[in-house]
Specification:
Shape: rod-shaped
Number of helices: 0
Distance between the termini: 86 Å
Structural class: mainly beta
Strand content: 25-35%
Number of domains: 2
Number of strands: 18
Strand order of the largest sheet: 1-2
């Protein structure tokens, strides 16, 4: 019994329509992922179109509107930039989570760019190995941006909390090497 295919959506995931033979043909090992409309096979999930992911690594599908961004592995979707994970930013043009490279391995708190140093995170923000994170309202970022401290006196010898930013420990200037009593 022969089944005539009228539309491409009847092809199984991981297959494309062979127009000449009017059959669905499985994608091969070098290009195992079928694109959304079953017209070509692509090499990996990252070659699906913008806003598409590769379900089970064999078929491109569009991410739903409520979870519109493609996950960093290209195999699913996430609802927002925070679903991308740590050390990952979101590229809004590609609708995709992108890992930060080794040389700029820290993602900013808003997930818009990768930076090289924790000190580039900003006032009152610290970084672990891959992600900038804000200190709690009642805390201050230490001078290296590696941990939050609970009081200005915890900043360390020769340091103070800047009255402008109020969230960051800073070194006292050379001409006043000791902080005032109130920090």
């Amino acid at each position: 019994m022969t089944l005539c295919l009228q539309i491409k959506e009847f092809c199984e995931p991981g297959t494309i329509v062979d127009e000449a033979l009017s059959i669905c043909r499985k994608c091969n090992k070098s290009t195992p992922v079928a694109n959304l409309d079953h017209t070509k096979c692509v090499s990996d999930p990252f070659h699906c179109n913008i806003g598409e992911f590769a379900s089970k690594g064999i078929q491109c599908f569009s991410c739903p509107k409520r979870i519109p961004y493609v996950a960093v592995d290209g195999l699913g979707c996430v609802p927002d930039e925070y679903g991308c994970g740590e050390g990952v930013i979101i590229n809004y043009d590609l609708m995709r989570c992108i890992p930060c490279p080794a040389s700029f391995h820290i993602a900013t708190f808003d997930k818009t760019k990768c930076i090289a140093n924790a000190t580039d995170c900003g006032f009152g923000i610290i970084a672990d190995e891959s992600q900038c994170k804000p200190c709690k309202e009642s805390e201050y970022a230490n001078i290296l941006h590696t941990k939050c401290v609970s009081a200005p006196s915890d900043c360390g010898k020769g340091q103070f909390v800047n009255s402008t930013t109020k969230k960051q420990c800073q070194l006292c200037p050379p001409y006043t090497p000791f902080p005032s009593v109130d920090h």
